[in-house]
Amino acid sequence: MTARAYCDCHVNIWNDEHVLPLYTQQLARVRAGAMAPKADADTLYAEMAHVEKAIVFALRYGDSIGIESDDETTAAAVAKYPDKFVGFAYVDPRRADCMDMLVHAIEDLKLKGVKFGPIYNGVSLADPRLVPVYEYLQKNNIPLTMHMGTTFARNAPVDFGRAIHVEPVALRYPDLVMVLAHMGHPWYGDCIAVSRKQPNVFCEISALSYRPWQYYNILIEAQEYKITDKIFFGTDFPFARVDESVDGLLTINDQLEGTKLPRVSQETMERIIWSNPFEHWWHGDNPLA
User: Fold this and answer.
1) Which residue intervals define the domain Amidohydrolase-related in the entry (predicted)?
2) How far apart, in whole angstroms, are the C-alpha atoms of residue 145 and residue 62?
3) pTM of the entire structure?
């Protein structure tokens, strides 16, 4: 049976020319012989055949991982496959033209949300350069997805990936929807605690299926804290595929055979697979309408 999901909320897009030599250098330290995967619009569309909608965004990780894409690539993909893709912009607050680029992406390119990787750009969530970004997003009902968790890149300050730093921003901007990618791994307890406390903070499970023991513990803790209604499905494609991500969730309890450990419930699995960000991440303004 082919794995299906309603929405993949975490899909990366780039063209071949956006991949720099640094990418293979960095990846070789943790995955010998790995090559840069394809992540152009046509590749994404083929991969998302069993997903009804996909949220796609470019990466500007040129000096940390070695991928430097752009919002025009995202907008072109949405224009080519409008029934499948919803585009998010990327913000890099180190750039002097950050706000100009953001306004252009939202108001001219008509992208519907924003992605930011504080660990990859080396900018903490408390950095004053982010204040105009937060203010603009809150004012314009634009959700903010953030990479939360560690990374293999050396030039990426690991503390900036901890979800505990999200709470002060969530409190200061209560109408800004914030989505914590990767459940903040390996500090998933921080992610779960902040999401439970703050109504405007959500989370998602992309790039977790290939670490099944950690993934299992994340889901059990989320069940115990009763936040499974705030968790959304994502893959982090091309770093993880749709079928393996769905199957990794549906078979998460297989590793427990012969034990009395608690199980991830069928309700939790189905709730995540069929989660619909378009009903939750915008305040009364569904971008698909």
Assistant:
1) 7-277
2) 19
3) 0.96
